[in-house]
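DATA SHEET
Item: assembly model
Revision: 1
Owner: S.N.
Input lines:
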Amino acid sequence: MPLPDSFFGSKFAITTGDLEGWLAEALASGGDYADLYFEYLATSSIGMDESIVKSAVQGVSLGVGVRVISGEKTGYAYSDNLSPESIRKACRVAAMIAASPSKVDKTSLDEGPKRNLYPVLTAPTETSLAARAGLVKRADTAARACDPRIFQVQASWMDSMRHVLIATSDGSITTDRQPMARINVRVLARENGGPPQSGFSGGGGRIGLDKFTAAKSPEAFAREAARQALVQLEAVEAPAGEMTVVLGPGWPGILLHEAVGHGLEADFNRKGVSAFSGRVGQKVASDLCTVMDDGAMEHRRGSLNMDDEGTPTRRNLLIEKGVLRGYLADKLSSRLLGQASTGNGRRENYQNIPMPRMTNTFMLAGESDPADIVRSVPRGLYCANFGGGQVDITSGNFVFAASESYLIEDGRITRPVRGATLIGNGPEALKYVSMVGHDLKLDEGVGTCGKEGQSVPVSVGIPTIRIDRMTVGGTAGAIR
Amino acid sequence: MTGTEFPHRNTTGSASPAVAESRCPSPNCPPPDIAARAVRLAMERGATDAECTVSEGDEFTAHVRMRSLETLKEAGSRAAGLRVLVGKRSGSSYTSDLSEEGLRNLVASALEIAAISTEDPSAGMPDAAELGALAGDLALYSDDVARLETAWKIRQAMDGEEAALATDARIVNSEGASFDSYTGSRAFANSLGFLGAYRTSNCSLSVTPVARENGKQERDNWYTVARTPAALEPAVEVGRRAAERALLRLGARKVATTRVPVVFDPETARTLLGHVFEAVSGDSVWRHASFLADKLGERIAPEHVTIVDDGTIPGLFGTSPFDDEGVPSRRTVVVERGVLKRWLLNSYAARKLGLKTTGNAARGLTGNAGVGRGNFFLEAGEAAPADLLRAIRQGLYVTELIGQGVNIVNGDYSRGAAGLWIENGEFAYPVSEITIASNLAWMLSGISAVANDLRFRGPTASPTLVIEEMTVSGQ
């Protein structure tokens, strides 16, 4: 049977019969399961620096990854050549993990369910390069126009279109067309020859170029980057020690990604190496905290119609009113844990083995007015923006780096402070959440998560929250 | 910290004479021929200059966990990247299709996207006189890596993990052990007539055990990496060391917020050197995005601090015969006895600063070159690490840093840390869930001692060093 509406069917003449034959080859030495992941990825990037379009790159990579699972063992091989001989060779290499007679009868493949969470009529990759360069130029112009103290601007655009086809020995063929685009603006500001300070903003998602002309306009990101750099010109040293911390809405949701998200990935938990292992049903956060991971949100950076193993993504409840409810699973860990895949099997590209990963991770809104949350704090720190974070999943210790924060004095946000790292312990930190705002916001679409050398796009979100106790790593000594 | 990465693909390799033939009949022809062919095609189609990188490699991973084989991965790939100049405009492209048709598309794609770039007065190539490659064997490739048998590689991982599990009854679990190997080659050609290629190999063993006591668990890791299997540390020692590191962390406490001397072990000290590298790389300097940008010729550290970049040392991970613009690697003294002497430059940053390239161009496969390091290190001092500790009444010995709280533009430094508390010159107890903070400028001028234990386990290296005071934030 030909693959009618498929990119790989029409471009590479791959048929259902080919896929069935290759899966049989992969399972020829035994093994419980095999899959083929075909990927065609076209990317382009345009970078402007000193108001000159200095960098412009485009290219294509394609290949197929072959995986064979036998018990807890995985064999993996890939080819960057889609000739039948190369694919068969990869199947034979992956099959070496299993060493017994074939036990799977010929797989018969059917098309899996279809949906489209990111209907993009015209993908950014299909629009003119000049139109995309135009967005970068607008960002550059807008950032420079903000303030004479802005003296360097780097604006960049990146887009990609990924076509995938996944054929699995449990009988499904799924295909997807996954667009992605983002714009970044980085600026430096300086006052009277003093030290420079930086500001960064950006955003995007699985969206078309038209979205960047309205809500996510280049000018809006440029102004935000400039604002952050100008704020830093006024910043004093950050405080040090334990204190009350208020996180603003949006990207500060990276707290959830580091404090609980990674620790709930099922591979770590099936191995018992996570600080959250064996804690389902236990209290790991205050009653006010309900945390979700949802890969099925429209147009989001972390969204997928189906994960990279062909399982449809969905909304998964991680923490319900403070109680740990479940883990994020891929096919291998779900089978070994005796549950269903949660649709979180993801991989960077065809050269990599899928593993449990987050998608869009966020905390549900509470009932407090964000202004009341700030007013409730006599002395503390308000964090509006962060850089990245990191976690040691075994001890549970995590960090995230505040890039824009302010002192709270007598219930009011006052002076901005320099960048500082916040540190906590995953299963403990959210127990100190004492207020949750009604202003849930997701980030603008800039997150990339790294795990075992593989990067995947993710989103995070959080309403304004108050954490009664968290360690802040400034240089200025204790807050008084 | 959800995994460990090794210096795999971005390391460089041994010089071998390149073939100047530029016909490319099939995608199976040697990488230098493909690179030269792409450059010639680009010039025929209207580029005024062109440069092409072709990279190919074979990777292998065996991962074992709790005494069973868990993952085997094996594959090879190749790809080409092209950068063209059309006057003062530039465009870049890449592909994994190395057929004649693939190369034609590569050229068309680079020329197409060059058309949307704008003229950059500083765009260009290195001067032809600067091109060249180091002669002689740089010991970057060993056939022994390609010849390793799968069973032997699995056995190394098994032995490493077993040694960790056998070290102590408190080692109760494991994230496993991995043996990785890689062999590859990199070819580079440009329209000024440079054509060069070299091969690299490396292999590594990494072990990550989990220790548990009183309901708390800690993991740590140790690894060995080398260009040849013979230079690897024995698997049993890697496993035992990994276990000892995990055991040392058990019972960690949080300390009260204070200011004390901080000792960086070689693994954490080299992350500091990484920040210094970013701050002295020409790209940060010309755009004033470095806290050191105005400090050339000034004292930035005490007399006993000398920092060198040297891409010529045989067998090391930052060594290569030429950089990613075809300029020979060399030794550059960046900080000499505390005084900032030189930036590290590619040809672009050199033009922006009115200087000459230092042979530090780096790029993955395509695009404008950035600035990369050779072997970037702090020269060893004379004291044993234990002697440095003995001089500290109260302080922190750091063995792990997490997070990205480092700002190269203004030097602000704040990272999560774990390690051992020092009292009266000796280790008192393990500490974790704390941060250390300062500013990189203060930290450099506050390097009060440098030990004699310099070892190269990657392209960046440092001996144990002491910073006289940082803010430790805890309770």
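QC remark: The radius of gyration of chain A is 24 Å.
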